[in-house]
Design goal:
Number of domains: 1
Radius of gyration: 16 Å
Distance between the termini: 27 Å
Largest sheet: 8 strands, mixed
Number of helices: 4
Shape: globular
Strand content: 15-25%
Amino acid sequence: MKIAVVAADGRVAKKVIAEALQRGHEVVAFGRHDINETPAKTYIKKDILALTKEDLQGFDAVVDAFGAWTPEALPGHSTTTAHLADILSGTNVRLLIVGGAGSLYVDPDHTTQLVDTPDFPDAFKPLATAMGKALAELRLRKDVKWTYISPAADFQADGERTGKYILAGEEFKLNSKNESIISYADYAIAMVDEIEKGQHIKQRISVVRA
């Protein structure tokens, strides 16, 4: 398959690129750095908001790995997702979003999200709120083949690649050890599995270490 990874300079993006390449897929990385620091052989320096429909033609899937943490940059989660949805509107190109855990529901009625629970760290609430807003806006799009993939609450950059994960849905899930944890490497496996299988169009899914 031919896969585009945008905001490719981040650590999650690099893991996704490496996983896809290992499986024999063709990957083009789009990033803002002057030098290609990703595993991809083809790197194009271009900001997400500068991407055009023509840039993403011919791809089977686009992975949006955008991340922002400073208060002034947090609205970028909505604007970048909306821009990618706009330029992929009406096409067969899939849009897969590297999401957050804060918007996962903790009740079967889906009225309370993880971000709203008492133990959710205050420091991460602005980020979780911004990412949750982007997801809510994405849900309104009927013209895009999107999939939003939430990691476990403890999303570990340097965690081991176990090769195993539990695929879940909208609700916050713990594994058999009562943990909500996954490494970037195992998350990347789940992302590329989803790209290959394409089973969750216009859905949010989540993953946790098995």
